[in-house]
Amino acid sequence: MDRIDFEDRRQRSPPCLEFRSLGVDDAVPQKFASPLSTHRFWPHKPDSSQLKSQKRARFAARQPGWRENADEHRPTPFRRAEYPVPALQPWIVAQSNAIAMTPAAPASDYSHGTFIAGLLASAAQLNSQAFELPLEPVRIVDVRAFSRKEKTTVSDFLARVGDALRDFPQVHVWSISIGLDVPLTGPEFSQMARDLDELAGTYGVLFVVAAGNDLDPTPLRPWPPASYGADDRDRITAPADSMRSLTVGSIAHGDVASGVKKNEPAPYSRRGPAAAAVPKPEVVHYGGNCTLDNQSAGGISSIAPNGNVCIGHGTSYAAPLVASLAAQMWEVLAASGNNPTPSLVKALIVHSAVINSPPRSADHQRYYGFGLPFGISESLMCTDDMFTTFHTVAIPQGREIHHAFPMPHCLLVDGKFVGEIIITLCYTPVLNGANGAEYCRSNVAVSMGPLQLKRDGKVHFTGCVPPDPKGKANAIESALIEHGMKWNPLKVYRKRFPRGVAGTDWELRFDVLYRAGEPIPASPQVVHAIVTLRGLEDGMPVYRDGVRALAKLKHQTTALVTPTQLRV
């Protein structure tokens, strides 16, 4: 991760259901029209052998790094681009030349960006076809925003990023593997993160940001960390605390005798949380392993400026792997007639990571985030033993939105729900940097639970995931912020019910709260929620029963994506 000087501050089916409030556009919310919802349905995934053949056929037919011509498979670049590494030229479709690239040092030192570009173009192919890495390449816009030949300030960097966003409005996902040196331990969000948030909101893009590297002094962090980091030396650095960005940490993809083992947090990968107990990083990916004295061992492979394959390690190399997934996710959603937004893509990637990862303690979550995300097809599809719904909701102030939830019959045992519930919630919040730790000004609460007839003759809702925040045991604000993710625009809740919870009719409820003194926006708060139900035993027909339960609710449904729209 490069640094800058701080100057001036199994078989799968797609998730089955989308709930979208009528009259609301997620990108530009309109005035709230109705709490009624339409629903979209995701079909079953093809046979795994068919998927493999589709992968081979698709990869063989596609010209890497280019928009495909409607009539023939030949490259159609956005504009002419030249890159000094011939092996990467087919994938570089455009450039922002804020800094001239010359043969003379130090301007010729473009090894860091070249390594990242190699991973975007051929991550799996350069790493022995590792199935955990992205298989299909993405198109690359090369932005020269930082150079060792000059003292690059934060203002310089952000201005160049802003120019690139203005020049390339067709690019929706940007990978940023750059950051400051100072760990973030204070109560407020960094100015660099707030500026990046402003750019993301202005241009409607998703930044995928490296968590940062803790490389000096050695020895680096072992796993488990024991007392390492008691001085917070391994906390994230700016701009990894950006609220609207997706921050990526690194895990090892191979064992190192004098380091850490596969799938453990890499010794150098910085940890959270950010200010206000905001979980950072949100996800992790494979950025290469090293010894505790920072010698590359088990590193990840990519391209050197001379065109040869080399190895390296750093969160800089984990971030582009997630950025690749995000870009492909955006493209698939757009191709299927959806309106992808940064918060929607972020929600899908984080939910994929949760589904793909075991439950972890709050302490370990600071290193792993919510886990390692699946590939594109796995992220948008369900296994037979899980049922996933997707909800887009517009919530006006003072209004609680209720969605009846289709509960699979096989998870209802003797009038009780027995299974696991996972909820991911993501939205674009109201932000105001003048308010310090209270930077985030809007909070969406979600709760899922059963409806039951009580002794008073009335039907009552009991929030189970997460527990009802209105209960006395959960009423302390500091606890809600640290453990209930209050004021965090990304929330993840998961709970298993091995003994069951009484009730067969369940609802999902949403409401929004604005901080005291915050003007209420004219448009409602738009939020994306993803809910997955899983059985506690293998082989349960959860997906099948979920679809049947959905039909009984008589929701109008259409496909969010179809298997043919996935580039698998």
Key features?
alpha/beta, 2 domains, Jelly Rolls, 7-stranded mixed β-sheet, disordered N terminus, Rossmann fold, 4-stranded parallel β-sheet, 568 residues, globular, 10 helices, 23 strands
Spans with pLDDT under 50 lasting ≥5 residues?
3-44, 46-80
Tertiary shape: globular
* Annotated CATH topology of the largest domain: Rossmann fold
Q: What is the count of DSSP helices, taking H or I runs of 4+ residues?
A: 10
The helical percent reads 10-25%
> What fraction strand?
15-25%
Cα-atom radius of gyration = 23 Å
Question: What is the CATH architecture assignment of the largest domain?
Answer: 3-Layer(aba) Sandwich
Query: Would you count the extended β strands for me?
Result: 23
Instruction: Compute the number of structural domains.
Output: 2
Query: Quick one: CATH superfamily of the largest domain?
Result: Peptidase S8/S53 domain
Largest sheet: 7 strands, mixed
- Overall structural class, as computed from helix and strand content, comes to alpha/beta
Mean pLDDT: 82
- Top CATH class of the largest domain: Alpha Beta
Amino- and carboxy-terminal Cα gap: 30 Å
Topology, pairings included?
Elements: E1 2-3, E2 17-21, E3 37-40, H1 48-61, E4 67-68, E5 75-76, E6 92-96, H2 111-126, E7 140-143, H3 154-167, E8 173-176, E9 178-179, H4 191-203, E10 206-210, E11 246-251, E12 283-286, E13 300-303, E14 309-312, H5 315-335, H6 342-355, H7 362-368, H8 376-379, E15 386-395, E16 401-405, E17 412-413, E18 416-427, E19 442-453, E20 459-461, H9 477-482, E21 490-502, E22 506-514, E23 525-534, H10 542-553
Helix pairs in contact: 2-5, 3-4, 5-6
